[in-house]
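Attaching the record inline, Q. Sequence:
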Amino acid sequence: MSNDVADGNQGEKSDGPSLQKLGLIGAVARAMAEHQTAKIKPRENAPREALTKVFGSSKQPTLVVDIDGEEVGQYTVGLTKDTFQIGDPAAFEAFAVEKNEIDIVITPKPSFVTAVLARARQNPETGAIFDSQTGEEIPGVTFVPGGKPNGTVRWTWKTFRGQAIGKDVLMAAYRTGRLNEYLTETPELLPKAQPGASAD
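Structure, as predicted:
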């Protein structure tokens, strides 16, 4: 049976790929996507734990990845930001009552809390927290310094004029087997382990 008949075209000519070919393309794409989800995606942030640990001792926030001197991209440790938070709820509630910013449930209005924390600043000499808009001291608020690992890392491809050239460098090395020695402990990432690869 010809592909035309299998496709239901009954001999009609088509300018594009046959329905059967489109079906196979879709099936291959699905197989690769499933393989990606199960085997490859979990490896995306392989250096996260080690890089976070290194940052804890050396404060090194980035890991530049290169192949024989050609930069591919870099991982960057995700850091927390400086924030202000309610450290003494009772004191802050009293402050909110004074400002008539209390909901019926006797809790500071969320909009008030958000606005006050956004305007909060700390006096570097006294450590007092104050409202940068009104200058008055804000009771019950504490300053939480940032700059600490938040448990994530961010990957950035090396780019040139808006193009991710690092990805091209990486995949060229991957296809020619130059990365095989680094992937011996993760055989599922070797080229021959990918769907459609030759068994040789």
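The longest helix spans residues 19-40. Residues 1-11 have pLDDT under 50 and may be disordered.

More tomorrow.
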